[in-house]
Amino acid sequence: MLNTELATRRSDAVSRGVGVTTQVYAARAENAEIWDVEGRRYIDFAAGIAVVNTGHRHPKVIEAVQAQLDCFTHTCHQVVPYENYVRLAERLNDLVPGDFKKKTIFVTTGAEAVENAVKIARAATNRSAVIAFTGGFHGRTFMGMALTGKVVPYKTGFGAMMPEVFHVPFPVDLHGTSVENSLAVLEKLFKADVDPNRVAAFIVEPVQGEGGFYEVPRALMHELRQLADKHGIVFIADEVQTGFSRTGKHFAMEHYGVAADITTMAKGLGGGFPIAAVTGRADIMDAPGPGGLGGTYGGNPIGVAAGNAVLDVIEEEGLNERAELLGNRLKQRLHSLRDAVPQIADIRGLGFMNAVEFNLPNSANPNADFTNKVRQKALDYGLILLTCGVYGNVIRFLAPITIQDSVFAEALDILEKAILEVAAEG
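Predicted structure:
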């Protein structure tokens, strides 16, 4: 079986709306390595977009799933509930930042978690408006699209978005937008477009994912918390991509010293199995009436079993500390290339959620062409990378935090080689 043959079959059978980054068809995977159907090995610096933080097929996760398979695979928690759902909820209630009583619900995807967070905020406040940020990504459902601050490809061709969603510029000094600029727009928004007393929620990613791995400045995060308290607005932290040790903490909000009222999560929680969650202040989470939340597959026992195992792995293997170590090594290697690669505009990231941004040499203009050439050349050498950013000029690094030291060193050598070769090509 060849990758090209599968690519042809896929083109004939699958909607073109489901895009792919590579034409590498996976046959098997282990920790930070993937082998394709032709037997070629790749080092995975995508991790299923921050899903397998604990690595492909972590033994403890697989063991937990297999044990659950021997018991039952589905009852629907709303019909016949089960203990491991309750146990995982208790653990998240303890782990999610915030010195207050919390409650949790489980769903299946990150977009579904965001949808439910907005539903809960609206039920708790009896308000409807939501304020998000440019460059943010919150899913491909209609509310998720509306909240997402990027048109192409997420909103193009899908008609009118959900009403009463407003966007504020996300502050990125590199792009000329300061915290003061963002807050000034927010103030004008309250004066011209929406009464703050009609706003149900703010929603923000502590570190933007698709938007370019930009961190929320500490000053903005604290100001949002103060404005939320002043106007009775629910503060939602979208930790779908930042959660579960990716930033060197269980949750990225731990870096800020303020807590959100509601936290959404998915991706890394399941270690490769579908599960998502919403955790928040108990009084807010209890605002919807019985039956207002849920879903047939929400909190599926297989995903819940995986989630409990993932939390065990994070604790037992010290993945928060390891994320810091790996991220520092990666950034050091990238910084060592700056003199030889004038296209490098910025190197950033909390923990092991890192990025390098490329511009035209000695310019503030984004260089998406250079970025994509680096991605493709790295792939040719056996390293899977992802790009992101509103301008497509950012490479983001999301390798499993469990990656072996020898494999990580090999990946850094490939990355350096790819960047230097593209730079030499001009």
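Summary: The chain is about 35% helix and 15% strand.
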